[in-house]
Amino acid sequence: MSTSWNDAGWGMLCAPLGGGEGGGAILEPETAAVGLRHKHLLGLEDYGADEITLILDTAESFLEVLERPIKKVPTLRGITVVNLFFENSTRTRISFEMAEKRLSADTVNFSASSSSTQKGETLRDTAANIEAMKIDAVVMRHSAPGACLFLSRCLESVIINAGDGAHEHPTQALLDILSLRRRLGDLRGKRVTLVGDILHSRVALSNIYGLQKLGAHVQVCGPAPLIPRHIEELGVEVYWNIEEALENSDVLNVLRIQLERHNAHHFPSLREYHEEFGVTMDRLDRHASDELVILHPGPINRGVEISSEVADSGRSIILEQVTNGVAVRMAVLYLLLGGKTREH
Ligand code: MLT
């Protein structure tokens, strides 16, 4: 799966960002000296720490672009990206579309409810028909784990995973990690706890892979039925009690209960979940350090996994995550597709 497709190096990385409506070159040479070894972004499992760091450093540069009065660079002019969403999404879909537009790519949106998949067309046929219209990349969200890997084997286009079932959601983890790095600096040795529905969460697995590669210590916490068996084999520590987890955390990433993926009752009620595992100000005051940082990938269920008071407090960097998400997705698109504009 890994190729050296995109290792065009320094020149490729610097040139597309310079000039344009937005102004000057923005990558530092040391950042630009390496490229991604992958053609696609299917997950973080097989991405190296150097590649993750490259994406984060590149995203930092794009954050500067997003601060400019004209938030657009010509980097991906002539490139066509199709956003293929078979599952609902607000943040991720808008964020990708915004990132594509900020890079001057042409974008086409596809949603399953208004497509021929409703008439029985297979994923392979839908995708092959779209590719026949001469596109360059597909950003896909699908309920089946492995759907993006499957697509990468059927198509020539670059595939970016925007969430495949309960498997991975790599750009969410990258934006979480970027937000933490901007807050805390070097993540080596930092204790990051993922709390909630780990079993059904694609955000959890991508965070585990990404954070561990950057040297963080990852912990998970939740009701036993929502913690995957054998998760310790991934090198994570398991807490069954949120108060103990809080006492040993620098960061809490609060995950939503993914009711839409539950095919059994994993706990008695949402009210009881909140009582046992809800992140409330009272719990934080009693058990967390004053520096504890709170993340949430959204959508938030206020009063279930997190109280409104915590979500809106100074400890929470939830809206920073959303801003950083656009820059991370610009970085991913640029690093995977920037080489194509140079080939032209
Ligand atoms: C996801 O798509 O997995 C979201 O970002 C997190 C969630 O739905 O809870």
Note down, in words, how this protein is organized:
- The structure is a single chain.
- With 344 residues, this protein is of the alpha/beta class.
- It has 2 domains: 10-169 and 324-343, Aspartate/ornithine carbamoyltransferase (Rossmann fold, 3-Layer(aba) Sandwich); 171-317, Aspartate/ornithine carbamoyltransferase (Rossmann fold).
- The chain contains 13 helices and 9 strands.
- Strand 5 (191-195), helix 8 (202-213) and strand 6 form a beta-alpha-beta unit.
- Helix 7 crosses helix 8 and helix 7 (170-184) crosses helix 13.
- D-malate binds next to helix 8.
Radius of gyration: 20 Å
Identify low-pLDDT runs: 1-33
Q: Please indicate the count of domains.
A: 2
Structural class by SSE content: alpha/beta
Kindly report the name of the CATH homologous superfamily of the largest domain. Answer: Aspartate/ornithine carbamoyltransferase
Extended strand count: 9
| Ligand catalogue | D-malate
Order of helices and strands: HHHEHEHEHEHEHEEHEHHEHH
CATH class descriptor of the largest domain: Alpha Beta
* CATH domain fold name of the largest domain: Rossmann fold
